[in-house]
């Protein structure tokens, strides 16, 4: 193994595999090592079902649960925005040749103890009980403003300076009340907290535009989900890397990261040394170079029924805005099923996630658990969140951030692009890479 590589990657989480694939495509010599015997790291899909029970030290599974190999259960719940950054990365790198996707059936928001469908069409908006009749008209006017907004065209900006006007002021401009503000900020712009209200409105406008553009692709919802689970994504990028010469080693321990004069020079494993110029890794490989920023609780729930009040959806997202449950951050529910090849026939997998705020995390997710009852089996994990202490430019060790509680990949892609820029000095720009012929994505 004593060879020189441009990049050594430790861990096979999605971020690490995407960067490995992109580096390989760009002609870099890449070695990818993971101490685990499976792909995906934090973003793995666990199969068979018996392995999930072993992982969480739960007795079972009870019968009947179908064949264990029919299950592919995600550890981190995420959907892809149909017009989002990760889809553009998949299309640009042609990783879509390895993965099939389905459109998620619906998106819902929690209000006053009930869940309501996030309107997908003008007809749904008019019929929705999320808003009163007058607010619907004002909200429609607001959405038309957002959809037509162009940062380069002053005529579309209603005399608003998007770099100075706060989002709170913009809502006030359209006379939108607190309920509509909560629904828009959390179910459309997908913010976890209300901190965005007092920041310049440009980012929020772009987030809502992304939601609307993604929704326009397929009309049912703005989200996509890969058949056989999210673990297919890192494996797809791993195949891409291998196609361009990347070398993968699973079940390979990392004994030491070798340094000289304050810079990484290689990795030692089982007595062998591989040299490198740069190193990419997840926080677990360099605990002394990351700091804890909080915790996330995730609860994997196996159900024998669709979630009530979702029109028998086989897949959906539910957002519980923080203000509805007296919290500082939102609670998310992602649900998929046998129709996505992740569960046995007639079974559903719903995953709850949120940022931990108290000393009793399970109590914090109780409002979401009540929406899922009855639950056949529950698996709870509480994970620390880490960010790197440095940007990697001095020691050439580039560390990814932990996966947050959001149920989309936009923050994941922001981290990938940030790491790429720090490594290469170049911008990873997928803004013009969307193809209008999306034969790789199915209804």
UniProtKB/TrEMBL annotation:
SUPFAM superfamilies associated with the record: FAD/NAD(P)-binding domain
Q: Which GO terms describe its cellular component?
A: cytosol; Golgi apparatus
Query: Secretion signal: which residues?
Result: none
Question: Cross-referenced InterPro entries, in alphabetical order?
Answer: FAD/NAD-bd_sf, GDP_dissociation_inhibitor, RabGDI
Q: Which GO terms describe its molecular function?
A: GTPase activator activity; Rab GDP-dissociation inhibitor activity
Keyword field: Cytoplasm, Golgi apparatus, GTPase activation
The protein's location, in the record's own words, is: Cytoplasm; Golgi apparatus, trans-Golgi network
Pfam families hit by this protein: GDI
Q: Which GO terms describe its biological process?
A: protein transport; small GTPase-mediated signal transduction; vesicle-mediated transport
Q: What does this protein do?
A: Regulates the GDP/GTP exchange reaction of most RAB proteins by inhibiting the dissociation of GDP from them, and the subsequent binding of GTP.
User: What is stated as this protein's family in its record?
Assistant: Belongs to the Rab GDI family.
Q: What is the name of this protein?
A: Rab GDP dissociation inhibitor
Species this protein is from:
Xenopus tropicalis (Western clawed frog)
């Amino acid at each position: 193994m004593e060879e020189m590589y441009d990049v050594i990657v430790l861990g096979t989480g999605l971020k690490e595999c995407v960067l490995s694939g992109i580096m390989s495509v760009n002609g870099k010599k890449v070695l990818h090592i993971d101490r685990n015997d499976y792909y995906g790291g934090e973003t793995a899909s666990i199969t068979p079902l018996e392995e999930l029970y072993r992982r969480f030290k739960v007795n079972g599974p009870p019968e009947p649960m179908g064949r264990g190999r029919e299950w592919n259960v995600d550890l981190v719940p995420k959907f892809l925005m149909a017009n989002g950054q990760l889809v553009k990365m998949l299309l640009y790198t042609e990783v879509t040749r390895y993965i099939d996707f389905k459109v998620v059936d619906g998106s819902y928001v929690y209000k006053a103890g009930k869940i309501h469908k996030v309107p997908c069409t003008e007809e749904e908006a008019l019929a929705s009980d999320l808003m009163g009749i007058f607010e619907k008209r004002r909200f429609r006017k607001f959405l038309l403003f957002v959809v037509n907004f162009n940062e380069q065209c002053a005529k579309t900006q209603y005399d608003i300076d998007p770099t100075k006007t706060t989002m709170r002021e913009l809502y006030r401009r359209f006379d939108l009340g607190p309920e509509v503000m909560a629904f828009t900020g959390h179910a459309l712009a997908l913010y976890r907290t209300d901190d965005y209200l007092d920041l310049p409105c440009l980012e929020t406008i772009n987030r809502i535009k992304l939601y609307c553009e993604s929704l326009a692709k397929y009309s049912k919802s703005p989200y996509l989900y890969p058949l056989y689970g999210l673990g297919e994504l890192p494996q797809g990028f791993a195949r891409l890397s291998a196609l361009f010469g990347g070398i993968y080693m699973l079940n390979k321990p990392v004994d030491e990261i070798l340094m000289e004069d304050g810079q990484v020079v290689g990795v030692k494993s089982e007595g062998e040394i591989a040299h490198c110029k740069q190193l990419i890794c997840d926080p677990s490989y360099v605990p002394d170079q990351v700091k804890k920023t909080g915790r996330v609780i995730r609860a994997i729930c196996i159900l024998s029924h669709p979630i009530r009040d979702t029109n028998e959806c086989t897949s959906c997202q539910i957002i519980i805005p923080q203000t509805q449950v007296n919290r500082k951050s939102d609670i998310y529910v992602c649900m998929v099923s046998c129709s996505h090849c992740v569960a046995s026939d007639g079974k559903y997998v719903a995953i709850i996630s949120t940022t931990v705020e108290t000393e009793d995390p399970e109590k914090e997710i109780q409002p979401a658990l009540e929406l899922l009852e009855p639950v056949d089996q529950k698996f709870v994990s509480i994970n620390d969140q880490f960010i790197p202490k440095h940007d990697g430019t001095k020691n050439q060790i580039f560390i990814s951030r932990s996966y947050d509680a959001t149920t989309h990949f936009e923050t994941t892609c922001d981290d990938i692009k940030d790491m790429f820029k720090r490594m290469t000095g170049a911008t990873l720009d997928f803004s013009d890479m969307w193809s209008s012929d999306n034969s790789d994505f199915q209804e």
